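hi! just following up on the protien thing from before. the input was this:
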Amino acid sequence: MNKIIIGLIGQICTGKSAVAVTFRSHGAMVWDADRAIHNLYQSSHIAKDIAEFFPDCFVNGNIDRKKLASIVFSDPAQLKKLTDYMRVHTGVIIDQTLKLFKKSSSEILVLDAPTLFEYGRIDVCDYVIFVEAPLKRRQKWAKGRGWTEDELVEREQHLAPEADKRKISNVIINNNGTAEELGEKVEKIYAELMNEGD
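and the predicted 3d structure came back as:
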């Protein structure tokens, strides 16, 4: 079958990672943007650059991601500075991942990257999945990350309009049930994609 690249986007704190895990359990290759960025922050030359941009976000020589987030999400200019800088580095990693995928035996690649649309890389995807969830559930998961309800709202305000992302999505998954029900929804999509590719 033809290889398929899936863009996994959606609201913040909706269970996108759980969707990616289900795809991975079926043999899909998954690229986790959050993990990739975390690894980049561990890189000495990137940490050095960020120290110059945001010296107040360093604790014991390491980037304090919570402090960095509080700085950039309270100032659009600072957020743009960080986004423009990180876009270059994540773009390189995405390109490397695409090359690895082409050579791999995997038939599906999932780009678990909530800001794929904002970064202008949604065009590499053959299929786009938007994940949504009830607000109270999202607030609960945000609290589990150590965020306040205001922080969840503030972060979303800096994203592209949700309507625009829904418009370009092939399917919308509402994570409003149990983990088992979410898995069933993902497995149905997986089966449909595999059948289309045959």
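The radius of gyration is 17 Å.
The chain has one domain: 4-197.
cheers
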